[in-house]
Amino acid sequence: MYRIGIISLILVCCLACEKEGYDAPELQPVFFEYHYINHAWGYQDHGWLIDREGTIRRFELPMDYNLGTHGDYLSLEQLEHNLGQADSVCGEIGKTVFDQKTDLIPAASEGEIEDIQWRGADMGMGIFSCYRYDPAEDAYQYVLLSASGDYLQNNLSTEAEDLAKWLKGLVEGYFYY
User: Which DSSP state fits 83?
Assistant: First the structure.
């Protein structure tokens, strides 16, 4: 009887110590993305990606960029290709903050996406997103956090709102969105 109690206690402790958050694959190349596209009054296509080291890498007029929409899956090769389009480094995220923010990705990926609210035309679109690895698909799920420009659309989870606010704060004064 005593042994059963000790074994039960050990099992409870092991289950209680399970890591929360996002346990990303070691090779995940991209975690967060900002992408702006506008076809009006000349063509604009630029943005940045945050890689696995927390480095913010900017791209301008990428070739054959793999665009995602909420729920789409991109392969490792597609994300690596996108990251390869970056031509400059424009910042770094500290490991503590990076780990805190990546831990929000699983809950953000389960958030409800609100209906599109049309705002106008010729404004282009700025979109904040993140990627979550799905072992069942052996691919990275594109997760919409927020979109603004010709229309507004948001992921309504608290975690997605937190990530979108954080990402927008990273670029204030450096980029427009």
Answer: H
DSSP, res 114: P
Distances (CA, A) of 154 to 47, 100, 113, 127: 19, 21, 6, 10
pLDDT tens by residue, 106-147:
999 999 999 999 998 889 999 999 999 999 999 999 999 999
125 φ, ψ (degrees, to nearest 5)? -140, 130
Alpha-carbon span 143 to 128, nearest angstrom? 9
Let me know the angle formed at the C-alpha of 86 by 82 and 91, rounded to the nearest 5 degrees: 120
Phi-psi region of 95 (alpha: psi -120 to 50; beta: other; left: phi over 0): alpha
Q: Which residue has the tokens 């979108």?
A: 164
Amino acid letter, residue 68: G
- What's the whole-model pTM score? 0.85
Amino acid at 34: Y
Quote the Cα angle for 93-152-143, to 5°. Answer: 45
In three-state secondary structure terms, 132 is: strand
